[in-house]
Amino acid sequence: MATSDQNLSFFDLSSLGDCSKLKIGVVTAEWNHKITSKLKSGALSTLKEAGVAKKNIHHIDVPGSFELIAGARLLASRETLDAVLCIGCVIQGETPHFDVINSAVAHGIAELNVISGIPFVFGVLTTLNETQAKERAGGKHGNKGAEGAFTALKMGLLKRENTPANSIGFKG
Question: Is residue 27 helix, strand or coil?
């Protein structure tokens, strides 16, 4: 979402319309907690600022980014949600672990979108170093957690507009 030296975390929440009845899930990886806690804070602040009722924001933490997939599925299977934001941070190291985890998480979240009928938002930073992660967790590139929340709101509203009242939900 961000390009070099730009902060895209400024958006017009009022352009969304009424978000008060939306039910949003937020699943946050605890790994790289210094980063993910800031992303989660940005996301929760954005949801509240948009008018989502506190009782309609369901959040859980999971150990790492790989576990976001199962955590998101479990949350969506126990709550009736309009969208789920998956927040994580994977920083490249010296081994191919970075590529394996990023690929698995991206594919897993994409699959949840397809099988569930619920929008699952990919809010996972995939950075080359900690500096890049910090720049995207409230630094010069904004807060990608806030941007993910904005995306979850837009997708949640879209789901509500296009979901018949009698449609079947995700039953994990």
Answer: strand
Residue 33 bears catalytic tag: no
Q: How far apart are CA 59 and CA 162, in angstroms?
A: 25
List the chain pLDDT tens, one digit each, 172 residues.
444 555 555 677 878 888 999 999 999 999 999 999 999 999 999 999 999 999 999 999 999 999 999 999 999 999 999 999 999 999 998 887 888 999 999 999 999 999 998 999 999 999 999 999 999 998 999 999 999 999 999 999 999 887 655 454 544 4
- Between strands 57-62 and 24-29, the pairing is parallel
Ordered structural domains, the chain, with CATH: 26-160 (3.40.50.960)
- Parallel/antiparallel/unpaired status of strands 120-127 and 137-139: unpaired
Q: What is the pTM of this model?
A: 0.88
- Give the whole-angstrom CA distance, residue 63 versus residue 70: 11
Which candidate in 33, 58, 59, 97 is catalytic?
97
